[in-house]
Structure formats: C-alpha cells, structure tokens
Write a structure and sequence with these properties.
Residues 329-377 form a coiled coil. One of its GO terms (molecular function) is ATP binding. This protein is α+β, with helices and mostly antiparallel strands and 596 residues long. It is 54% helix and 19% strand. Among the domains are: 379-443; 448-595, 2-Layer Sandwich (Heat Shock Protein 90). It contains 14 helices and 20 strands. The strands form five sheets. The chain has a six-stranded antiparallel β-sheet. Strands 2-1-5-4-3 form a five-stranded antiparallel β-sheet, with helices on both faces. The protein has a five-stranded mixed β-sheet with strand order 15-17-18-20-19. The longest helix has 65 residues, at 9-73.
C-alpha cells in the first residue's frame, strides 16, 4: 500500500497551494464586492449632490433675473397714474411698456393690479387670454404684497392654466397703497434643462408638493402627507385649480435613499433653494452603478485569481527546480554574481539618486505652484455664479435706468435723467472693479511678497465670494471700526487662502437654521491674527488632527487639497495657519501674519 501511495505524494503536495489560491480568490471577491458597492454609493452621492447644486444655481440665477423687475417697474411714471387715477391713456402706455419689457426679459406676463384687486394693465393686453379687467383679490400674493410689501407665491394660473411663480410688489405706502405689480415666472425651460442631466429632479414647495420636475409623472404630487390646514389653504387659494394632489411616485427613506413605484432604489441629494421652505431633490438610480460595480468585481476577481494561480504555479515550479541540486547550485552562483554586480554599482547609483532627488525637489516646487494655480482656478468655478449675478444685476439695472432717462429727457425732466445717468456711472464702476478682481485672482506668476493692506484683501475677497453668502442667506461678519493694518504677504495668494476658508465655512453652515460666519482681526505686537469662524457642525474629530494633510477631507465630494495649499502659502509668507475652537460653536481657523 505504501508503495502504491508513493507516486501520489507530489500531486497531493501541489494541491495545497491550489486550494489556497481558491480560498484567497473567494475572499478577495467578497472584499472587492463590499468595496465596489461602497464606492458606487459614494460616487452616486457625490454626483447627485453636484448635479443638485448645479441645478439650484440655475434656478437661483433665473429667479434673481426676474426679482429685479418689480423693483425697476416702480420707477415707471405711468404706473402710478394708471393705478391711482385710472387713466386710460396711462394704462395704454403702460401696456406697451410692459409688453416690451416682457419680450426683452422673457417673462411670460407682467401686470398691474389696483388696490381692489382688478387688473388695469398687462403685457398681454389685447390678447385672448388678457389679464386686463380680471380680479385677483382672492390670490394670496395680492393680499400679502399689500400688507407686507412683497410676496412670492406659486400657483396654477386660472386664466392661462399654466403654473408659475408670481413675484408681487406693492406700489405706494403701506397705509395708502396704489396697488400691486406682478411678474410671473414659469419654469418650463428650467425643467427641460434639468431633464438633460442623469436622474430625476423634483422641486417641492413649503407643503411638500412637487411644483417643478423633470419627471412628468411626479408633477403636482406630494412627497409627504398634507395636513388638513395645508390642504385647506391650497383649496381656498385655488393654488392648483382642479388638479388632484396624489402621492408622488417616489418614497423617501432614511439614509439618503428613495424607492419608486417599481421598487428601484435611488440615491437622494437635497439642497435648499432661495424660497422659504422649498427644497430641490435630485434622485440618481443605483442599479446601473451597482451593475458596473459587479462587472468590475468579476473582472478584478478574475485577474486576482489568474495572478494568484500564476504565483502558485511559479512557486511549484521553483520548488521543483530547487530539488535539482545542480540547477540550484547554478541559480545560487548566478545570484551571487548578480549581487556582486549590484554592490559594484552602488556608488554610481547613489550619485544618480542624489541628482534625481535634486531634480525631484525642483519638480515638487514647480508642481506645488501649479497646484496652487489650479486651486485658484477651481475656486473660480464655485464663485462664477455669484460673480455673474453681481454683474447681471447692474447690467439689467443700467438698461432700465437708461430707458427711463430717455423718457425723462423727452418729457423735459433733465434732473431725473441726470440722476439715472449718475447711477449708471456707479454701476459701471462696480462692474469694472469685479472684473479686475477676477483677472487678478486667476493671474499666474504672483510670487512676489511685500506690504499688503488687509482692507484691500478683504474687499477683493468680498467681490469674489460675497454674493454666494447673500444668495445662501448666510450672515457674514467682517472687521469694522477703522482701517486694518498692513502685513507682509502676496495679495492674490492671501485672497486665495481667505476664499478657501470662507468657501469651507459656507459649505459647513449650509443646513444650519441661523447660519453665521465671522472674520476678526487682532494685533499682537509684530503679529497680526485673522480668524475665520462659523456655527456649523465643526470638524470631524477623526480627521481634525490631519485636516491639513493632502487628500484628508470631511466633504463627500472634496479632494482634501485646499487647506494643505493654504498652509503652504502661509508658511511661505513666514506666517501660520491652524485650527482653533470657534466661539460660534462650529469650526475655527487662525491666520497669523507679520506686520509690515
């Protein structure tokens, strides 16, 4: 029997590595499956958040474009005559002006309502669906504008039967109003733009009703059960006409997930929009990402299995070769010869390594400057929408003021025309300062250091990022009470550090009930300390000690490079950047600079 089993021993010895390869491959498949699905979910959440923020910026830009119209319309001389005196001639002139303004701005309709709720003038006057003569006293936006001055109300038009947001503004004082001017904003173009992005987007009002969406099935559905009070308010105001509000085809779940009527799961991203109580919800289907992850797992598992099998076969082959004494001796001699040659080349290799390290240090310095430039360009993308709004507002106002100035000149009112022209000059100077600040911020080759006034640095930073705080409704406190000291730094790179810290603070307080960010300056001998604090959730204790380390970040879509670049810039200035406890309860950072 022993003689019969002797030929099988080599095969049994070789089977052990093959079984190990099988077990390791199965373990790798399980670990890769867990890792791939986690990465897929993280990627989906990052994509959903990025798309939701892009779509919110598009919506905010559209709203800001139309919110300026009611303010400008107050300047029209014919508006007061048509509302107070009921002048037919003034109403006809106002109809033409409103029609031209609606065509230029793309507003669906602009109309003026007297204090009794009757429409006296409209941009669609003379058309079959004209608003002139109709009474809108029952509409909440009319009543709210008379009592509160302004109102923004979404409803289904009872004349056009098209949904839209009604922007209303009172004309005249609160104790004796002349009436209300209304601009209607429709969102069909925005919904079409949203439809070009992956997934589905839902915009809900303060009652949870889907009012704008890229999915026609979800329009005028509810994401949550309506309270009896909310349902009564909707029915009394005829907000959605005769449309029956049914439950939405998507059911939100804890943990940032949603399930549709067919049982498919979606990753959910929610962002606030510049309307009280409204939310923008973006859903990305998870099935395609999981399919791609599973396909990658199968491919990676196959590669790992093949690699382990190759290693096992190589080990078997080497073991078999080692049993051959002659071949083992030759392999040993070859190894000794190879090691001898390596020792002889040690000096040459050390010389080459030293030279390579010098070149690597030079490449590192150049790469660090390129990374700082890329960080500035990356920051520019997040502030572009705010800067565009800072420019669009004056441009729209310039056009309206110029038209009014022409009207005043034809009516022999040069004083009013001169006032409008002076305002136009101020607006053009503001546009010039914004453009110059952006060009300075992205300009390459700003390596110099010297005396820099903190006042100028803070003003330039506010031009770049100030509108983002105003659009998000975040209170930003900056130093006041006299001029600030002069420090040793480079203006553009110091602005880059401040923009990075303020953007992080703005992201941190995005979901807080009363968001605040504070900047303070304190003088300590020859040092100047500038602190940036917020009332956000604060730094994650797990990553706080390494927050300045590259690729360490608390943001789901962050790279973790901004703070590291900022600390390097401060060290080049001979200063310091570090974290401190925030007096507002969130995160705090301190910048220490030398006095010039």
């Amino acid at each position: 029997m022993r003689r019969l089993l002797a030929p099988l021993r080599p095969y049994r010895r070789h089977a052990i590595p093959l079984i190990g390869v099988l077990l390791l491959t199965l373990a790798a498949a399980v670990m890769l499956h867990i890792y791939a699905h986690r990465q897929a979910v993280a990627g989906l959440r990052a994509d959903a958040t990025r798309i939701a923020r892009q779509q919110e910026r598009l919506l905010n830009s559209e709203l800001q474009r139309f919110r300026l119209l009611p303010i400008v319309l107050v300047e029209y001389p014919d508006l007061g005559d048509a509302l107070r005196n009921g002048s037919r001639q003034a109403a006809d002139r106002l109809n033409e002006k409103l029609r031209g303004l609606a065509e230029r701005t793309g507003a669906p309709v602009i109309y003026a309502i007297d204090r009794q709720g009757r429409t006296v003038s409209a941009s669609n006057a003379g058309q079959p669906d004209s608003f002139v003569g109709r009474n809108y006293a029952f509409r909440p936006y009319f009543r709210q504008a008379l009592t509160q001055g302004t109102s923004e109300y979404f409803a289904l038009g009872n004349t056009s039967h098209r949904a839209g947001l009604f922007l209303a503004r009172r004309i005249g004082p609160a104790n004796a109003p002349d009436g209300v001017v209304v601009v209607k904003v429709e969102f069909r173009r925005i919904a079409q733009a949203w439809a070009s992005d992956p997934g589905q987007t839902l915009l809900t009002d303060n009652h949870g009703v889907v009012v704008v969406t890229s999915d026609p099935r979800a329009l005028f559905t509810t994401m949550q059960a309506l309270t009896p009070r909310a349902r009564g308010e909707i029915e009394q105001a005829q907000q959605f006409g005769g449309v029956r509000l049914r439950p939405a085809p998507y059911r939100l779940e804890p943990g940032g997930w949603a399930t549709d009527d067919e049982g498919n799961r979606h990753v959910v991203a929610r962002v606030a929009v510049p309307l009280p109580g409204w939310r923008l919800i973006h859903l990305l289907p998870s099935r395609p990402a999981f399919r791609a992850a599973d396909s990658w797992v199968r491919s990676a598992t196959a590669l790992i299995g093949v690699g382990l099998l190759a290693l096992a076969l190589l080990a078997i082959w080497r073991r078999t070769r080692a049993e051959r004494v002659v071949q083992a001796r030759e392999a040993l001699e070859a190894e000794v010869a190879r090691r001898t040659a390596e020792l002889r080349a040690t000096n040459d290799r050390l010389t080459i390594e030293i030279a390579e390290r010098v070149r690597a240090d030079q490449r590192f310095r150049a790469a660090r400057e390129e990374l700082a430039q890329a960080n500035r360009l990356g920051s520019l993308g997040s502030i572009t929408a705010g800067v565009a709004h800072e420019i669009n507002q004056p441009v729209a106002a310039i056009r309206t003021l110029a038209e009014n100035a022409r009207t005043f000149l034809t009516r022999a009112a040069p004083d009013k025309a001169a006032s409008n022209l002076s305002t136009i000059v101020e607006l053009t100077e503001r546009i010039s300062s914004i453009v110059q600040e952006m060009r300075r911020f992205v300009r390459r080759g700003t390596h110099g250091m010297g005396p820099v006034a903190l006042d100028a640095v803070l003003d330039g930073t506010m031009l770049l990022i100030g509108d983002r705080f105003r659009s998000a409704g975040v209170v930003l406190e900056r130093p006041t009470g006299g001029s600030l000291p002069v420090v040793v730094a480079g203006r553009v790179r110091l602005e880059q550090v401040l923009v990075n810290l303020l953007q992080n603070a703005l992201d941190a307080v995005a979901d807080r009930p009363s968001p605040r960010v504070r900047m303070c300056v304190r003088e300590e001998g020859d040092s100047i300390e500038l602190t940036v604090e917020d009332n956000g959730p604060g730094l994650d204790p797990d990553i706080a000690p390494e927050i300045f380390t590259p690729f360490v970040t608390g943001k789901p879509d962050g790279l973790g490079l901004g703070l590291g670049i900022a600390r390097d810039i401060m060290r080049e200035f001979g200063g310091m950047l570090d974290t401190i406890p925030s007096s507002l309860g969130g995160a705090g950072f301190i910048i220490r600079l030398r006095r010039a």
